[in-house]
Structure formats: C-alpha cells, structure tokens
C-alpha cells in the first residue's frame, strides 16, 4: 500500500490451514460458491501424497542418482501421462504423445550437465525442452525444498505444469508470437485440471484432499509468482512475465473447476480480463529509487484507511476504531483485529497488527509472504462486517465469512487507483499478501466470530469475486441480501 498523492501502503506461517480462525457451519447459495465445497467438491481434510498401494514408477531418468525425489518426480510423470492419455482427445486437438525423455540434475553441482542449450548448475527449476521433447527437474534444490515445505503433491503439480508445456505444443495452442504469460497461464491451468482428477480419486498413485492438502499446493504456486520490480526495469531486462500469485492461482483454479478445455481458451485477452486493472509493477520515486510498496503500520495509517473505507462505502453509521483491547477484543486468540456489532467498533491490537505487517518472505523461517496488506486487508475485513451490519444480513454464518472476503476484495479494487480525497493506494504485491493471508490464517475470509471456511481455495475465489466485481455480486454469490 502507499500514500495517495501526496503518495507514500499492504505470512504464511508454519501451519497452512485456518491459523487462528475456526470453521463455521451454514447453508450454501451455489455449488461453486458453497462455503463447504471446492469447485463443487466437498471441502475435507484427508490423506495427501503417494498412495500406499501406488505402482512403481516406470519412466527412465537420465543423470539420476537414484534419490527418492527422482522416484517421486517419475511417479508424477507417470500419473500426468495417464491423465492425458484418458482426457486429451476430449479436450484438445491433435494427438497425444507421452513425454518419454526425462532428466534430473543437481543445481548445486558445478558439473551438472548442460541441457537444452543452457547450464543446469544453479538452475533451481524444472522445465520442458521442446527441441528434445524432454522434461527435466532439479533434484538438488527445487524438488526437495518443494517437498519439504509444501508436500509431495506440490511436486506433482510442478510436474503437471511442465508437462502442460508439452501438451500445448501437441495441441498447437502456442507459436513463436504467444506471450510467455499466456504460455505459463495455460500450463498452470493444465496442472489444475490434473489435480482435480487426483482429488476425485482417479489417480492410482496419489491422493489429494481439498482442505489442507490443496492449500499447500496453492501456497507452492504463490512462491513461484513474478518478482516485484518497476515496469521500466522489467522492460530493460527483457523479463518474461509469468504472473503474480493471483494470476497463477486463478489459472490453476480455472483448470480445476472447468477442465482442460478451458485452459486451451486462455489468451492475452482472457488474462487481461481476469486480472482487471490491478497494479502490476512497483513505482519509482522522484529520486529514481524503487518504492517498496510497504509502509509502517501506525495510528495515522489506520486512520487513513478508515477514512478511505468511509468514502468507499458511505455508511449512514460508519464504525469507529479503537486501539483499546478492552473496548473490542478479538474473538479468536492471537487475532489482531475484531469487530463488535453492539458498539459498532473495530478493535485493533496495534502491536500485534504491526507484527502481522512486518515484511517477510522466508521459507526457512516458515514464512511465505507477509507485508503491510497482510494487516490492512485484515482490518478492512472487519470494516466490511459493519457494512453487512447496515445491510441487515447475518454476520455469524459461513456465507458471511465468504461475503466478507468478497467485500474486502471490492474495497481493495476501489483503492487500486488514486482518487481525490483518498489517502491510500493499492500497490503491486498487495494482493499477493492478501492471498497469502487467505491461505494461512483466513482472517480476511472470517465472520464476526472469527470463524472461516475450510478451504483456502474457496476463500480466494470469494476474495477475487469482489476484487473484480461489485458489492451486489458479493451478496448474490454469498448469501441473500436480506436477513437470514
């Protein structure tokens, strides 16, 4: 987040689940926006990873050292191959040809081989090489790190993404003029289609639950988002755009919900429509330095946010802000923000909120992404409970939790452009911080009791609905506009 002109704005912890929020019961409005479903499937926790009765991997890997991470990667290749052998003809033109050339390498090893015209030493990545029809992965860093922090299924999703690049070429979906962004978004989408197949119990090798397991897969997708930089720097460095966290997760969700045929329809126009007019790059200051987009959270920033939200929602009885925990304490232990309807008060534990906002992105310390909008989106979510109070809808239901995420998204959409009289402006990276919070603690998608819904997937769907929609959409998708 940054100050509006006069401009100067918004963690994944160890547990990728509901964090300090509990889950809540309720009734659904639509299968797709059901608080207890994920793309129409039940939202449940359960086993995720390699099945006990999984067959042995059958692919042959060049340059392998026989490590268990290579066994996992080959098992994933076998699984994605089986998925496409069953579904390619129904979704895509052309003829399916299995990827048979596989290679692993160790990016820590200076003697690691050159592949596809480039060095693999220090190449912490996985890739598909079209001229060789070869799929390769880093067994030294990338696969073991993904497995450690996000679980086996994040590795399977990684392989499914790279295999998607092979599928694009089989189907003739891309050519030399296709943007890198479209190429990557299609591959993210294909990975989502495969993961749905696994969730539905079709894979003989893997299982994936729609709660914590899928949350981890989405968190892994967030870590491979584009780095933040000014647009002019990206142009000078000729940096290919792959997509921010919301881009990558939303493409994955498209494939998961609608299937592989939807992925084939992704083009530049579809991506532009799906991402809206949200900021994509950091600003340069008057002195030429890159503006981080993160601001220190203090009383003046909270007052500015309250003023901006008052101007966005124009409530007849706007809530007041209190920094005294005795006036409105959080309903869940460790929650730095709360809303108390009886007094129409937003309560803030300022030191706790400041810890929430401290910029961080360090997997080794079990933090995925945190910044000022981790905090400011959480406080915005408590404000929009007051918006719902004035609308006279229930505040303590599962629908209210998702409606809160949706209205928070709308508020942040409204803050994406400088407006006369407004003080804060959304900056590049702010939405990614909000998405990380939705996966970890769920505060932005929680109701007045602090309870959220089980699946981070569904919380993000609700937030994005508001980010690209309007308030009325939040009420129609996530509960009736009146009482009840």
From TrEMBL:
Superkingdom of source: Bacteria
Signal sequence segment: 1-25
Keyword tags: Signal
Pfam families named among the record's database cross-references: Zn_peptidase
Transmembrane segments: none
PROSITE patterns: PROKAR_LIPOPROTEIN (PS51257)
Name the record gives this protein: LpqM protein
Upper taxonomic lineage: Bacteria, Bacillati, Actinomycetota, Actinomycetes, Mycobacteriales
